[in-house]
Amino acid sequence: MTMAEAIPSPRILMGPGPSSVSPRVLAAVGRAPVGYLDPELFELLDALRADLRTLFGTSNDFTFPLTGTGMAAMECCLCNLVEPGDNVVVGVQGFFGGRMVEICRRLGATVTTVCAEWGRVLEAEAFAEALQQVGKVKLVACVHAETSTGVCQPLDAIAQLAHAHDALFLVDMVTSLGGMAVNVDACGVDVAYSGTQKCLGAPPGLAPVTVSERAWQVASARHSPVSVWYFDWQLLRGYYDAPHTYHHTVPVNLLFGLQEALCEILEEGLAVRFERHQRVSDALIAGLQAMEVFPFAQEGYRLPTLNAVRVPEHIRDEVAVRRRLLQEFGIEIGGGLGELRGKIWRIGTMGASATHRNVVLLLSALQSVMRTSS
Ligand SMILES: Cc1ncc(COP(=O)(O)O)c(C=O)c1O
Question: What is the third-level CATH fold of 12-18+270-371?
Answer without folding.
Answer: Aspartate Aminotransferase, domain 1 (3.90.1150)
